[in-house]
Amino acid sequence: MLVYAMGFLLVIFQPSTGQFPRVCANTRSLLRKECCPPWDGDGSPCGELSSRGSCQNILLSQAPLGPQFPFSGVDDRENWPSVFYNRTCKCEGNFMGFNCGECKFGFSGLNCTEKQLKTRRNIFQLTTSEKDKFLAYLNLAKNTLNQDYVIATGTYTQMNNGSNPMFRNINVYDFFVWMHYYASRDTLLGGSNVWLDIDFAHEAPGFLPWHRAFLLMWEREIQKITGDENFTIPYWDWRDAEDCAVCTDEYMGGRHPTNPDLLSPASIFSSWQVICTRSEEYNSRQALCDTTSEGPILRNPGNNDKSRTPRLPSSAEVEFCLSLTQYESGSMDKMANYSFRNTLEGFADPRTAISNISQSGLHNALHIYMNGSMSQVQGSANDPIFVLHHAFVDSIFEQWLRRHRPMLEVYPAANAPIGHNRENYMVPFIPLYRNGEFFKSSRELGYDYEYLQEPALNSFQEFLIPYLEQARQIWAWLVGAAVIGGIITALLKGLILACRKKTKGTSSEIQPLLIESEDYNNISYQSNF
Question: Which of 66, 140, 188, 339 holds its CA 20 to 30 A away from the CA of 39?
Fold first, then answer.
């Protein structure tokens, strides 16, 4: 009963994170191209009177892009979010949000000065009450109107360049489904023409940082609508699984007794309606998904094409992927070889790291295995298993970051597919986040994974870690500098000794009369040095 009851709770809404802020989805904001709402705390735009932030021009990355998208000026997501807004709130310190009214991930308190570290846990390690609460929170999100954000139902051109706003209300859960769709949808070129080879959240370097930000925002939204500040997304560790262990009525929904493509009527998720799953229809109409209900969640785990995905991923495959030292390589798309990102995403063989788009490994394998709503990229977030799956994928990304400890410069700064360079803003988030901001340890973003937790460090150790890490990154240069320094020292010592011998051999009659010979040697040493 708890699961059903919580779906209809009334809650007090607070600012959230995501696409178009409701206060900016109007003609005035679109024509001015400005989204700098006031912070309720002092009534000033971006909380400027309280030094939380200020309204500033957006600084777009000028780094060159890869060749995958050969157009310019045809897609609203290019140089996000400049088609809609070129001025937004720039928050200071640990403040965050479309109006600087929130704290950055990992911080809390009135002034966002209190550090936090929450733990994501294995869903099978939750108690019955914890698991039921998680399911209830999901259902609550599906039945709660998002008070702070709306979604666009038309392109900027269809909105007559802002003079005819086209936005619609949406519930909290579907809001994130729509965001995932919008980031991965095809480009509408007019007439019946579309460009398929574009994705701002997949098939390129930003895949892992984008989904990391997405889950953090989703997690925070659940915390807000429930008032449960300690909520964290559980994960499903699918390594070596023989079947879909979470596909039961006790967890994410079992199989329907008469229709294997549907969920059991005993599951709360059997009544959920999906959105944004008909990409071919949207493309033919040159339209965006307008969140119209499109039927129930489909799922038939294991009855997928075995030639493409014969089984769920193994521990050995995950471990091989973690051993790869390059985050990205080559074309930086789904054809990249020896790329950790491409191998984890599933476009490269998890045993060789060679690109093979005829097969689906690791992350992709799970989506294909589910054989339903999860298996179509744009609408995959409709199935609540999506968050469990991506939480575990994120934990593998976190393992790689901890094992290899890459510097930010490892993330490509240029020539990645559109939207995926280090300084590109992620589509379609407002407030704005760059890809590189989430290429860091989860602990810096305020969360950890239960199976990755390490002994707590004292404050002195925490202070030293960043400096020791910097030293580790440049150890080869340090060794080289030490060798060169030794050679230079030896040469200088030889010169000094030679000068001393020359000085001793000089007649006292021609030495300076006002300087003792010992002082003269010291000056010669300093001068030579």
Answer: 140
